[in-house]
Amino acid sequence: MGKSCKVVVCGQAAVGKTAVLEQLLYANHVAGSEPMETLEDIYIGSIETDRGTREQVRFYDTRGLRDGMEFPRHYYTFADGFVLVYSVDSKESFKRMEALKKDIDRHRDKKEVTIVVLGNKLDKQEERRVDSNVAQNWAKNEKVRLWEVSVVDRRTLIEPFVYLASKMTQPQSKSTFPLSRNKNKGSGSADS
User: Fold this and answer.
1) CA–CA gap between residue 127 and residue 90 (Å, rounded)
2) Which residue has the higher pLDDT, 107 or 2?
3) Model's pTM, two decimal places?
């Protein structure tokens, strides 16, 4: 297990950010329970990657954004990854999530971060306001992965978080500073 990765979970108020984490990490979600406002909570989980290694992930469960609220800037500087959450039954929450993605791109200072998008409340199909194809096309254009999930079905939460942990802890395949492989291993002098 390497360093602990820091993941910020963000989105509009009442989209199910805390419920996603509670269900993922503790299988602890009561369907139909009233949402509680979060100021900030930190969850620590151990997630198995697609390489079979376990990685420690520190999740920062942030306060749900409401009208006129800006996302606190300090999160942009330390995060290794973001989970952007919207609710499939709220077009407004999708628009808020799009704005958060733009803010992340603007403030991350060339730092490589992994972004996963979750369309929560998949179990509320009859109340759907965000078209699945529109959301997937947006994700493709933004070069992020998007899953539609439901905290009612914990199995829908596993794949996005395995992907997130795997992507953030991917071993570097190439060095940023490639070593030149000089065929003349002498002093570099041409006269022999």
Assistant:
1) 9
2) 107
3) 0.85
Q: What is the mean pLDDT of the chain?
A: 87
Across the range 154-175, mean pLDDT stands at: 87
Residue 172 is predicted with a pLDDT of: 66
What are the backbone angles phi and psi of residue 152, rounded to the nearest 5°? -65, -30
Q: What is the pLDDT of residue 185?
A: 47
| pLDDT tens by residue, 41-78 | 999 999 999 999 999 999 999 988 887 777 888 898 89
> How far from 105 is each of 3, 142, 178, CA to CA, in Å?
24, 10, 27
Contacts of 85 (CB under 8 A, 6+ apart): 9, 10, 11, 15, 16, 17, 20, 97, 117, 118, 120
Chain mean position to CA 63? 16
CA distances to 3, 108, 114, 172, 182 from 176, rounded to whole Å, are: 20, 19, 19, 9, 18
Cα 28 → chain centroid:
21
Q: How many CB atoms lie within 10 A of CB 26?
A: 10
Token pair listed for 123: 């179990």
d(CA 41, CA 116): 19
Other CB atoms within 10 A of residue 101 CB = 18
